[in-house]
Amino acid sequence: MPQITSYHKGQSNNFWNKLKLFWFRKKDKTSRGRKILKKILVFFIWILALSIMGILIVFAYFAKDLPNPEELTGRQVIESTKIYDRTGKTLLYDVHGEEKRTVVSFEEIPRNVKNATIVVEDANFYHHFGIDFKGILRAFIYNLQGKKTTQGGSTITQQFIKSTILTPEKTYARKIKEAILAIELEIKYSKDEILNFYLNQIPYGSNAYGIEAAAQTFFNKKAMDLSLAESSLLAALTQAPSYYSPHGSHLNELKARQEYVLERMYKFGYITEQELKIAKQEELGFTQTKEGFEAPHFVMYIKEYLEEKYGKEYIEKAGLKVYTTLDWDLQQIAEKVLADQVKKNAKNYNANNAALAAIDPKTGQILAMVGSRDYFGEVYPKNCKQGKSCLFEPNVNVTIRPRQPGSSFKPFAYARALQKGFTPDTVVFDLETEFAVEGAESYKPNNYDSKFRGPVTFRQALAQSLNVPSVQVLYLAGLNETLNLAQDMGIETLKDRSRYGLSLVLGGGEVKLLEETAAFGVFANEGIRNPTVPIIKIEDSKGNIIEEYTKKPKKVMESQIARLISDILSDEEMRAPIFGSRSNLYIEGLPVAAKTGTTQEYRDGWTIGYTPSLVVGVWAGNNDNTPMNKEPGLVIAAPIWNQFLKQAYEFKAQSSKLKAQNPENEFTLSEEPENFTEPELVVANKDILNGKFATEYKVEIDRISGKLATNLTPPDLIEEKIYPQVHCILYYLNKDNPQGEENGREDSQFNNWERPVLEWVNSLGAGVFYNQQPPQEYDNIHTPENQPYVSILSPINFQDINVNEANIKIEAEANARLGIEKVEFLFDDELMSIKYSRPYSIYYQIPQIITEGVHFIEVKAFDIVGNYSSKKIEINLFNFNY
Fold first, then answer.
1. What is the secondary structure of 166-234 as a DSSP string?
2. Is the pLDDT of residue 197 over 70?
3. DSSP-derived secondary structure letter, 432
4. Contact (CB, 8 A) for 175 and 182
5. Strands 81-84 and 91-95
């Protein structure tokens, strides 16, 4: 196949040899005609010299004000900014002003593009010095004849000059300037360089300037990937870009023009007959106008950031390459899943819109962002007033718009409470309770199902999203302290704290979906926050990195606290009583933690959940806050969340198997199930913190009197009795030091919390013995006054007794106010005998095994209620034989 060749100057001396022969031939007197010819020749030489001089003067006149060719090519070329996905393979958007352009090297432009352009624009490009004299002469004659024509004989070199610095008016002055610059440019640069300048400069229509922008605009591919048919079509556009536009109404004319280009390429030997035939038959599919604008809400989010930081005009012309954090595969999954579910929501629940944000909690990078069901859709209902009465507004990015989060905000309050020393097993009461905080109106929340469940643990209350216990938790955690924690975790919208009260835990404030999703990422990442980032790096037009992502982790929560929250939010069994078993918060084989939210009157539905590697937030509802058909976030938002997470993991697992090597910046997910780290066992020093709502109040009771035992109550008459006490949590602890010794009975909320608990206890009826009061009086039977009197009459203390005596008479006296029941006789603490009536005397035979020396005799007297006294004496045994 013929190749484009460079022009080489040739030189011939034939003309000048003949002229010398004619001029210096010997004079012939008879040759008068020759003299005349010489005069004519001299005349024309003068004319030629004067003409050349005139041309030089004209050139000098116009050239003095023209730019240097180096300035022409060294100027800052307007290039549009490209926004890519995280791998750089998918172009999401081309940010441009009036000119959308990406400069590429000569080597990146296909040979077919070069050849097609030359044959249709300047067939002799490689064989002239920048000016086509025949074309200029033709244009001159046509203009003298008064004919209107666009034939000006402009070469590619001239067209480049005209499109860069000269105005397009058709005047001789402009033509002269054009010619001068063309010659200068041809002297300074090679033909290949000039052709490259031209192909990166010319307009192709639809704001596409240069071959790369044209390829992206009309075929959604890079110039280097263009086929012969596509190359010839783009070359066909340059004569009249608007008229021949693939997005216009002259497609038949465009096809004819393309075939003309192909015929020219064949004529000049650049393609074969077979290639000509195939190219003519190739069906070309043109990229529609809205294509080339992928992930539109995310792109506009990026564009807004770029304009704010670098300026709108700069990013439209600077040719930046912006490599975002977006995962194009996950984005496509998100868009489809969301659109499919919104169709069902709109039909069944009057929820006409939804939004989704997905973030890598380990880096903070945004992986997917869907701001509405369809960026390119139409408002609904038709003719609604945007910002006020539209159920659906396509261009509004709900992921960055403040909305009430409902119960999805609850984990922040529970996390703060756990930080203060409360435990997941801490008991609070789910009862109708009035909350009256100083400076605010009293507040009496209800549960989603209008039912109350009595004593519940923090774990139950959060997993089942119970409202009344959660309001108590926020009070215990502290409103300001909870707001501080939420802010540390990434929520920045709750700034005017004077607006918020205890209803905040039920979604009383407004937050952004993107922010709350990122904040949940702190739980997923075990207490470490990575700021949300949408961009990996930005390069300028020369490839210099002007901005680049660097990881900036910050510990904002203890790992144990984050693990406890994840443990609760992933507890399928614990949430089942409210959400059902295997609900949309459950994914087979994939441990997930999740929290739903539903605002008052069902205006918003939320679901935010995560694995250790991916956190996803979903909102569903109507743009104008119109209530839905009384369905919670579990029904309208959770299906989107569930399907996205499920498909994301399935796709990434399959994708990793097919790829030998992951591209740079590829986001991957583990094929194996990711488990949350188990939290450490938490044990506190109070029953109420350890899951026992009924605290055991133990007392020692005298079985005879039924009153509190004293030190005088006989041990065998003392029994331990338990009185279960049920009170609100403030009865047992101070909210600011829950494991300390102080209680909270002086707290301003105590009475409001205690009252419904006591009412609940009373409502339990017979057979339940909570809150029975133990005796307040002490044993009044076993007292000093009632103790028996006892004395030993015989033997006497320290008496000497012969061991050989047969019996020892032991005689005692005893009496008591309540009467003597019995008298016990003991020898060396061994019971000898018991007497139940008078006389209180016995005879004791000393056993032979008893040795000589000191021994003890004791007498105990007991009355009829167990009071007793004793008397002990010492005797001395000796062996004396008569």
1. S-----HHHHHHHHHHHHHHHHHS-HHHHHHHHHTTSEEETTEESHHHHHHHHHSS-GGG--HHHHHHH
2. yes
3. -
4. no
5. antiparallel
Do residues 414 and 460 make contact, with C-beta atoms less than 8 angstroms apart?
A: no
DSSP 156: H
What average pLDDT does this structure show over 210-216? 91
Concatenating the DSSP letter of every residue in 304-325 gives HHHHHHH-HHHHHHB--EEEES
Distance CA 717, CA 827 (A): 25
Is residue 79 within 8 Å of 318, Cβ to Cβ?
Answer: yes
> DSSP label at 293?
-
Residue-level length of the chain: 882
CB-based burial of residue 562 (10 Å sphere; 0-12 exposed, 13-18 middle, 19+ buried)? buried
**């926004």: which residue's tokens?**
83
Q: Please check whether residue 131 is in contact with residue 241, taking contact to mean a CB–CB distance below 8 angstroms.
A: no
At residue 483, the pLDDT reads 97
How many CB atoms sit inside 10 A of residue 378's CB?
A: 10
Residue 42 exposure: Cα atoms within 13 Å on the Cβ side: 7
Roughly how many angstroms between the first and final C-alpha of the chain, as a whole number? Answer: 156
DSSP bridge partners of 429: 455
Average pLDDT, whole number, for the chain?
88
Contact 635, 351 (CB under 8 A): no
Q: Which residue has the tokens 């556009």?
A: 237
CA-to-CA dists, residue 723 to 173, 357, 692, 694, angstroms: 111, 53, 14, 9
CA 630 – CA 534 distance, rounded (Å): 35
Rounded Cα distance, 73 and 71, in Å? 6
Structure tokens that stand for 266 in this block: 């064949």
The token pair at 14 is 């034939």
| Average pLDDT of the residues in 433-461 | 89
480-508 residue pLDDT tens: 999 999 999 999 999 998 889 999 999 88
More confident residue, 879 or 548: 548
CB-count burial class (<10 Å; 0-12, 13-18, 19+) for 512:
buried
In the chain the domains, ranked by start, together with CATH numbers, are 69-281 (1.10.3810.10), 402-658 (3.40.710.10), 687-762 (no CATH), 789-878 (2.60.40.10)
Strand partners, 820: 863
Peptide linkage before 246 cis (omega within 30 of 0): no
DSSP code of 615?
A: E
Helices (H), 350-501: 410-420, 458-463, 467-477, 479-489
The answer, yes or no, to whether residue 603 has pLDDT greater than 50, is: yes
Q: Is residue 320 pLDDT above 90, yes or no?
A: yes
Quickly list H helices, 617-726.
633-636, 638-658
Residue 776, phi then psi, degrees to nearest 5: -100, -20
Q: Which residues pair with 416 in a beta bridge?
A: none
User: Sign (positive/negative) of CA torsion 176, 180, 181, 182?
Assistant: positive
Neighbouring C-beta atoms of residue 662, cutoff 10 Å: 12
Please name the helix (run of DSSP H) or strand (run of DSSP E) that holds residue 521, with its range, or none.
helix 513-524
Judge contact between 827 and 847, C-beta under 8 A.
Answer: no
Say if CB 152 and CB 204 are below 8 A apart. no
141 membership: H or E segment, kind and range: helix 133-144
Q: Identify any residues that bridge with 824 across adjacent strands, giving them in sequence order.
A: 834, 860
Percent of the chain, pLDDT > 70?
87
96 close to 299: Cβ distance less than 8 angstroms: no
Residue found by looking up tokens 């993107």 in the block: 514
Query: What pLDDT was estimated at residue 569?
Result: 98
Q: Give this prediction's pTM.
A: 0.76
Tens digit of pLDDT for each residue in 710-749? 999 999 999 999 999 999 999 999 999 999 999 999 999 9
Q: How many Cα atoms sit within 13 Å of 517 on the Cβ side?
A: 32
Sign of the CA dihedral running 70, 76, 77, 83 = positive
